[in-house]
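Q: Given only this backbone (415 positions), what sequence would you predict?
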């Protein structure tokens, strides 16, 4: 058994790995999308951000001429979320491979515990025309702050498209030319995940195929739902047959009405504990995140399954980008593309077990890492048929829409 195999049998490790993503998803309610979360307006006011484009950045940043003028360095500072990269005895093998290949030394930091809170730290710095201290940062698609960084304030450096060779050769269609960043002008995906349904067929007595199964009285007292307002509101929209990304406030109210009828069936509205209760059998069926179910299977809870319902599952993506005024943009560009090399991408994906953005690393995981379970998993490498059922979240247009969403769905989880 090698060191990577041993990690699946360490209970302390498993709790850290399965809970980290849930903790992150809890705070990814970002900018008011959740109970007690900071409002986007409050963040913007606290940072002194007016919402206008930053005139200090110049007009040529990110052009080919600008990139050609940037000096190469041997340093890189990468800001990511906790527990979101491969680790072996205190080192990161994928980073070690990158450094050996390029001579670039990576300082890997984990200061991001929420899109909103991280934004509140970097926004005043960027507004003043100063570097954040990071060369790569990671933000999430369904968080309003991503749009603020990329578009409203223009605080991300356009990528050098000439240096995206691995990306162009190996990137999954799920992350190429995405709706949040057409043409991948500013971003390259780090990892993705899916919000769908986890269940134990031995307890449900049947396979789960539909969002409507979460509303089945036969499962009364054994249904788990998320307390995250964006997640629960979105599943309500799927339950009434409405496309979340094009929904309206009238649709939101109808979805809330549907979710209200479900309340007597629900054991708990979870933030972090649903996977434990699925494992114990206290709940039989629950809203779930794909990485958690896969990791539970690896830990020995092989009765658990993940279903992408016929109505669709929600795809979210965490994105790498280079913040304005970064000290080492060439190193950042080099690393972001290297993450799409099969050996580096495969090492990361085999460890974190979320949907990899690198379709080209499947054979590496199967043959070199000798992990056919991961290589064959629909939760890491979804097929075209599975991917066709993925849905995009609603993208809020302003703080008023965030407030309206919260007002409609918050009573579901608090009453």
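A: Predicted residues:
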């Amino acid at each position: 058994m090698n060191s990577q195999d041993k990690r699946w049998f360490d209970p302390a490790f498993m709790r850290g790995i399965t809970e980290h993503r849930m903790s992150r998803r809890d705070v990814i309610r970002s900018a008011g999308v959740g109970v007690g979360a900071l409002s986007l307006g409050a963040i913007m006011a606290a940072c002194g951000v007016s919402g206008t484009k930053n005139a200090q950045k110049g007009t040529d940043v990110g052009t080919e001429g600008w990139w050609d003028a940037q000096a190469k360095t041997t340093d890189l500072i990468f800001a990511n979320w906790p527990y979101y990269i491969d680790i072996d005895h205190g080192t990161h093998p994928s980073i070690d491979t990158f450094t050996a290949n390029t001579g670039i030394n990576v300082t890997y930091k984990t200061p991001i515990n929420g899109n909103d809170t991280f934004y509140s730290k970097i926004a005043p710095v960027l507004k003043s025309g100063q570097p954040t201290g990071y060369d790569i940062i990671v933000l999430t698609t369904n968080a309003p702050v991503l749009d603020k960084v990329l578009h409203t304030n223009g605080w991300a450096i356009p990528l050098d498209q000439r240096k995206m060779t691995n990306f162009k050769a190996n990137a999954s269609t799920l992350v190429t030319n995405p709706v949040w960043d057409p043409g991948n002008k500013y971003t390259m995906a780090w990892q993705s995940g899916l919000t769908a349904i986890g269940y134990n067929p031995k307890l449900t007595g049947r396979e789960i195929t539909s969002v409507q199964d979460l509303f089945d009285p036969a499962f009364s007292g054994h249904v788990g739902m998320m307390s995250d307002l964006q997640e629960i509101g979105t599943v309500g929209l799927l339950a009434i047959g409405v496309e979340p990304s094009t929904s309206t406030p009238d649709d939101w109210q109808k979805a809330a009405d549907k979710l209200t009828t479900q309340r007597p069936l629900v054991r708990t509205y979870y933030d972090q504990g649903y996977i434990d209760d699925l494992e114990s059998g206290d709940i039989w069926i629950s809203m779930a995140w794909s990485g958690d179910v896969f990791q539970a299977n690896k830990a020995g809870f092989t009765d658990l399954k993940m279903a992408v319902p016929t109505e669709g599952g929600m795809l979210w993506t965490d994105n790498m980008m280079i913040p304005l005024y970064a000290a080492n943009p060439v190193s950042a560009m080099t690393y972001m593309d290297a993450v799409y090399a099969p050996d580096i991408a495969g090492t990361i994906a085999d460890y974190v077990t979320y949907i990899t953005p690198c379709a080209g690393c499947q054979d590496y995981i199967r043959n070199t890492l000798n992990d056919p379970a991961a290589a064959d998993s629909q939760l890491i490498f979804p097929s075209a048929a599975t991917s066709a059922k993925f849905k995009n979240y609603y993208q809020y247009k302003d703080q008023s829409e965030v407030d309206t969403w919260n007002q409609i769905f918050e009573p579901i989880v608090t009453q």
